[in-house]
Amino acid sequence: MIDTGATAALEELASHGTATIGEVAPDARILDRGLYPVRAGTVMAGHAVTVQCQPGDNLALHLAIAGLSAGDVLVVDYADDLGTGPFGEVMALACQVRGAAGMVTNGAVRDTAQIRALGFPVFARGVAIRGTTKTDPGRINVPITLAGTEIAPGDIVIGDDDAIVTLPKHRVGQVLEEARARHAKEDQMMTRLRAGETTLDIMRLERRD
């Protein structure tokens, strides 16, 4: 059964943006730059299902996708290989119909126009059109390192145009409260800016004449 409360909390947290999460949660782990959304404006939030996939082979992805549940994010270590595209339109649809929240990989994907049309959130290091074999089962739901960041099965993964961040799942409630508070503070700042104040005034910064 889907925990609608937990899903709503993740969606709201993602709506505040990774920049806000990075500000209010010092323990948030920010993946190194180099992974980008296939479609600009994409927002993704869910629980990590981790995969170690042998470059040149995508059987591990097929196995992992078959076990996905609603709200999962497929997190794939492809060893930074860009020679083949192990994930494309068919797999994106397979993830989508299972209710997955998104996919992120340090490898390449293919069928990017079709993935954009589906609206399924995908973050990747590059694009490659060469196909793969299907013989190596890889490893599923084991700790992996992706873009310089350790990710464990079940970790919260949030992505948008700015970054991809991860959090331990027990931190969602507290970080959400802190994100709400920061958002409210920034809303007040925007109101004062529109009223004619400067950021120097609002933030009480020293003027240098």
From TrEMBL:
Record-annotated membrane-spanning stretches: none
UniProt-listed GO biological process terms: methylation
Pfam families: RraA-like
Molecular function (Gene Ontology), one example: methyltransferase activity
Alphabetical keyword list: Methyltransferase, Transferase
Cofactor(s) it depends on: a divalent metal cation
NCBIfam families to which the protein is assigned, alphabetical: PRK09262.1
Protein name: Putative 4-hydroxy-4-methyl-2-oxoglutarate aldolase
Organism (species): Sinisalibacter lacisalsi
Lineage: Bacteria, Pseudomonadati, Pseudomonadota, Alphaproteobacteria, Rhodobacterales
